[in-house]
Amino acid sequence: MNTEYGRKVGAALRAICQLHSDTSKLLVDFDKRQLRPNCYSVFGSYATRDLTYNVKADFWMAEGVYRYYANNAEPGKIEGVAVCFFHEGFPHFDEPLLLLARINYRLDNDLPIRQVCQEWDILKLFFDFREDRELDHVLHAQNIEVGRIASASVLALPLYRIRHVDDVESAMARTRVE
Fold first, then answer.
1. pTM of this prediction?
2. How far is CA 3 from CA 27, 128, 142, in A?
């Protein structure tokens, strides 16, 4: 590796660290708005999963992060936010994305929401369950995975368009229109 290449890699890694730090701050700020009385985070303080600690790995960086918020007054309904740093299957989305969703889960047998909601549902709703995905348009879906998800609205935006947590709040409001 030549010195110039090493400097470029170092600068890229510092940029990724800053991206992660900024994303963490955004999620913490959004938590403060969402976690009001009777509301809670479905997965506690967790924000990502499926990272490997093994020496044999394709990469060690999280593909994305998530937060899901439930309300005791409306069992089965959540609002969620996710940031997709990259997605291997969709290289044409060549920048980090902010995804926002409102999801209505079917809660059979009074299951707790944590047993029905899955950490990557927001990313799956955008990348896997719809072929007509487009940035800055609210997508609607119904009866996903044999009815586990009764209905959902998801919106994806370029992450770097977001300047303040207010931008996230106004974008989330777009998913609430039934």
1. 0.91
2. 36, 41, 53
